[in-house]
Specification:
The protein has 347 residues and is α/β, with parallel strands linked by helices. The chain is 35% helix and 23% strand. The chain has helices at 15-26, 40-50, 64-68, 82-94, 109-122, 136-146, 181-201, 294-305, 316-333, 338-342, and strands spanning 6-11, 30-36, 59-61, 75-78, 98-101, 126-128, 153-161, 209-216, 222-230, 236-242, 251-255, 258-262, 271-276, 282-285. An eight-stranded mixed β-sheet has the order 8-9-10-7-11-12-13-14, covered by helices on one side. Helix 4 packs parallel to helix 5.
């Protein structure tokens, strides 16, 4: 693919898609070409909001085939509820489109394996939108983890919780839409855990033990989880995620010589503190260039233009590993979704 303007299409014109469209509008070398949604009025409003002066109007569709069959579309951003990701992503990959899909990529690991296989078969780029890994602050944190200032890594503690009004038909409480705290927000705790281990140790050690305490919603999805991942030798990651609870949503990375603290919303952090056991503390601030989505968008376009099917920042194996952890956590929590019956594990 040449360096001509990269044409994006959005599937699912919800709130997170507006953030994506805002970043695309401010980046060089790309534009929003089309949007597809089930509600025609909402979709048209999204298209009107993000049509830019002096450019062709953003196309509004209610049939995803119109996106997949449009030769002008280079990349598809999928921002529907989790339970709908698989079919949209698969259709886009079969059409040869690059795909950036919101997390969780799919509800379970078997579905993820099938999409990775499709990416390889059709030589189409696929990446889960783990935008945290692309943030400016996390590049500095990676240097901190590699420079040895922590001493031996001892553990991680984090939370991602928010109190949502209970609605059994909403995307976060409905089993049919792959609701639940883990797929919605707990995935951030897991991806951050793996990211810390990769930069501090050079790899993710195998799990020695996994402990899960769950609080289920009336619909049967997990409303709250308390999870401890044990990597042996006293190294653990403990986190809570919930859709019915308030929490400070911080992350603490603990070492023998000090701690790194992300004091608020760790997954979109722009500020971090180094708290040494001895000596002076240090605080760094790294604001977004646009809104935080810009670098995952750039990476998708870079990889697609280079003919690559995955990114070294969020490779397919990493997405599948996180999905595998989530399958195990949900099983220990006593949660089984319709997708587990439709796509049983082949492992």
């Amino acid at each position: 693919m040449s360096e001509r303007t990269f044409h994006w299409a959005v599937i699912g014109p919800g709130s997170i898609a507006h953030r994506f469209a805002d970043a695309v509008a401010q980046l060089d070398g790309c534009r929003l070409h089309a949007v597809c949604g089930r509600d025609a009025q909402r979709t048209q409003a999204f298209a009107g909001r993000w049509s830019q002066p002096g450019e062709p109007a953003v196309l509004a569709h209610t049939d995803p085939a119109a996106v997949m069959n449009d030769p002008a579309v280079d990349g598809v951003y999928v921002a529907t509820p989790h339970g709908q990701h698989h079919d949209y992503v698969l259709a886009a990959l079969r059409a040869g489109k690059a795909v950036l899909c919101e997390k969780s990529l799919v509800p379970n690991q078997e579905m993820g394996r099938r999409l990775v296989e499709a990416s390889r078969t059709h030589r189409a780029f696929l990446m889960e939108a783990v935008w945290t890994r692309f943030l400016p602050l996390y590049q500095d944190l990676a240097a901190w983890l590699r420079d040895g200032r922590l001493g031996a890594l001892r553990g991680m503690q984090s939370s991602f919780c928010f109190p949502a009004p209970y609605d059994p038909d909403s995307r976060i409480f409905s089993p049919a839409l792959a609701g639940g705290a883990l797929l919605d927000v707990g995935i951030y705790n897991l991806t951050a855990t793996r990211w810390v281990l990769q930069h501090a140790l050079g790899e993710v050690p195998p799990l020695v033990d996994l402990a899960v305490k769950a609080r289920l919603a009336p619909t049967g999805v997990e409303a709250g989880l308390a999870v401890t991942l044990d990597f042996g030798d006293g190294l653990t990651s403990q986190f809570q995620c919930a859709i019915d609870t308030f929490a400070p949503n911080t992350m603490h990375i603990l070492g023998e010589a000090g701690a790194i603290v992300l004091p608020e919303t760790f997954w979109e952090a722009t500020r971090a503190q180094w708290l040494p056991a001895r000596g002076d503390s240090e605080t760094i601030a790294r604001p977004f260039e646009i809104n935080g989505f810009e670098n995952e968008i750039r990476e998708t376009m870079r990889c697609a233009r280079a003919g690559e099917i995955e990114s070294p920042v969020v490779p397919h194996a990493e997405t599948l590993a996180v999905l595998g952890w989530m399958d195990r956590i949900r099983a220990l929590a006593g949660v089984r979704s319709p997708f587990d019956d439709a796509f049983p594990s082949s492992a």
